[in-house]
Amino acid sequence: MRNVLVTGSVDGIGRHTAAQLIDGGHRVVVHARNEDRAADAKAALPGAAGIVVGDLRSLAETTALAGSLRAYGRFDAIVHNAGIARLDSSEREVTGDGLESMFQVNVLAPYLLTALLPQPERLVFVSSAMAAEGAADLTDLQYERRPWNGYAAYSTTKLLDLMLAVAIARRWPSTLSNALDPGWVRTGMGGDAAPTSPRDAARGQVRLAVGTDAGALVTGRYFSDRDWRPDGTALDPALLDALLARCADLTGVQLPAPQG
What CA–CA distances, in Å, run from 225 to 66, 136, 166, 182, 194? Predict the structure, then answer.
């Protein structure tokens, strides 16, 4: 039995990931952004070991969330599933912290939770095939200078998630840190025309969280059924280190030194 955290686990792929882990006999803590959503999670996932609440649009709430999670002990695996998409948005949305909302939820929040929680055995970052259209411009991570484009900004956050997975794999060699593209999935984000069910998409996250086959026991990888893979530019060690440094500057929290 493994102790697993799944963020954004009220519905969609996250809920199915949590459900499959629970069905597999694992101890699963689920996450909701507010109390109403937590009630929905409790009804949908009665076998969960616990439900934690925190809005990832807030650095303070994300920090408090990490504090609540420490009551469950060290997690063997953390699945960073939570994310938002504003693909058709005509204007840049800024949170109460003064940060672009997709960047804060999709990139900074998983970085901050990872940095504040005890080092796990495995980390799973949910990326997307849209990462292929992202731009790893660390001088303008939040589209403050570039013309606003919701599709491009979201794609960039998914590329940054992939880069985070690889960057942390380099810093923490004893942790299996990977990113995956769940595919085009029938969720509120993916729409009804998507070919993949959330149940099927969840299997990849479950495999990376608790799988014991040789293909799951790797680190610093990007899993996808698509042909695209990141080039050497995005995965340049200096750029990866710079991304961790920028995340540390924006959150005020450094990624700890590796344990073990």
Answer: 33, 22, 19, 9, 15
pTM: 0.96
Pairwise pLDDT comparison (193 vs 238), residue with the higher score: 238
Of 111, 143, 158, 222, the catalytic one is 158
Q: How far apart are CA 217 and CA 41, in angstroms?
A: 30
What is the rounded CA–CA span in Å between residue 251 and residue 246? 9
Catalytic residue among 42, 143, 151, 154: 154
Is residue 72 annotated as part of the catalytic site, yes or no?
no
In whole angstroms, what is the distance from residue 218 CA to residue 123 CA? 11
Q: What is the pLDDT of residues 56-96, one digit of tens each?
A: 999 999 999 999 999 999 999 999 999 999 999 999 999 99
The yes-or-no answer on residue 42 being catalytic is no
CB 100 within 8 A of CB 154: no
Q: Is the pLDDT of residue 195 over 70?
A: no
DSSP designation for 94: B
Cβ neighbour number for residue 201 with a 10 Å cutoff: 24
SS3 string, 5-20, reads EECCCCCHHHHHHHHH
- Helices (H) then strands (E): counts for the chain: 8, 7
Q: Is there a contact between 41 and 91 (Cβ–Cβ < 8 Å)?
A: no
Residue (of 162, 169, 171) closest to 122 by Cα position: 169
Would you tell me the crossing angle of helices 12-23 and 198-210 to the nearest 10 degrees?
50
